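From the methods appendix. Each design record in this collection lists the tokenized structure first, followed by the designed amino acid sequence. Records were kept in a plain field format so they could be parsed without special tools. The example shown here is representative of the layout used throughout.

RECORD:
FOLD TOKENS (281 positions):
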């Protein structure tokens, strides 16, 4: 993944960890998806505040099977001690590429009474990983053996406040940024010009109107009218138009952006293969 990102031809595929102990479908899908030519699986960390298998466990299994991984690491369900302990554990298990996130509000998930933990903000979490690479922790205490973390942060390209925050993340030491789903190539080019770092643009194509409606309600995601209006002609037409839109976006931005992040609702391996083919051409 690091090498592909460096040359600007990186494609990663997001996967959700299992909701139980049965790993069969997860391992089978990732085995087949790896053959599409992606550079890494990006493994989520309890999105929407819902309980799923710990991302470090699933990530370790993927690393052990010869696949590269970009693991989500969220701060809001861990206190300061647990954060540093988990980072050391991840490194020991071979998980060294991290997407550092604040995390979804757990009160919206399976256990509404669960509280968020705010021992550390996202900028200090970034600084912590970089200090650990140098052999110390955030308090300046020596750790025995340096880490080799390669870390990214999130970016909402439609928010001036978030762009300012992204610049602070770059100053804190992130190696790359991942946008929310993008469809507009001009926005992508503008962001790349403004931010002096590697950028992966999230992309998503829809199977049905329900999926599209959900994503259209998420702040920071602007879906083109051609996709929104295509719902009037049924789900099959929507699938076709949204995939066409994504392929056009990839074609127009592959020489500007450093790669693409395919979100987890995408399961069609042939379509994933087509994205990889265009992105790396």
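DESIGN:
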């Amino acid at each position: 993944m690091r090498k592909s990102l460096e040359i600007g031809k990186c494609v990663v595929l997001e996967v959700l960890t299992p909701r139980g102990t049965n790993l069969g479908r997860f391992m089978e899908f990732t085995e087949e998806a790896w053959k599409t030519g992606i550079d890494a699986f990006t493994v989520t960390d309890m999105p929407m505040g819902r309980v799923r298998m710990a991302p470090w466990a699933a990530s370790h299994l993927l690393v052990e099977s010869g696949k590269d991984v970009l693991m989500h690491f969220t701060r809001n369900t861990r206190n300061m001690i647990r954060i540093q302990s988990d980072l050391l554990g991840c490194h020991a298990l071979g998980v060294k590429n991290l997407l550092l996130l604040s995390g979804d509000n757990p009160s919206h998930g399976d256990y509404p009474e669960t509280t968020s933990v705010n021992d550390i903000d996202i900028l200090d979490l970034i600084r912590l990983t970089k200090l650990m690479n140098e052999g110390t922790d955030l308090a300046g205490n020596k750790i025995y053996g340096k880490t080799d973390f390669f870390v990214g942060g999130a970016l909402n390209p439609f928010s001036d406040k978030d762009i300012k925050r992204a610049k602070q993340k770059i100053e804190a030491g992130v190696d790359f940024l991942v946008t929310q789903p993008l469809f507009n190539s001009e926005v992508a080019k503008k962001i790349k010009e403004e931010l002096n770092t590697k950028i992966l643009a999230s992309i998503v194509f829809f199977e049905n109107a329900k999926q599209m409606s959900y994503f259209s309600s998420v702040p920071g995601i602007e879906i083109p009218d051609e996709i929104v209006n295509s719902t009037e002609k049924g789900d099959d037409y929507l699938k076709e138009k949204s995939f066409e839109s994504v392929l056009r976006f990839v074609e127009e931005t592959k020489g500007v952006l450093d790669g693409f992040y395919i979100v987890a609702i995408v399961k069609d391996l042939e379509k994933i293969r087509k994205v990889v083919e265009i992105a790396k051409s």
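APPENDIX NOTE: Residues 1-280 form a domain with the TIM Barrel fold (CATH 3.20.20.220).
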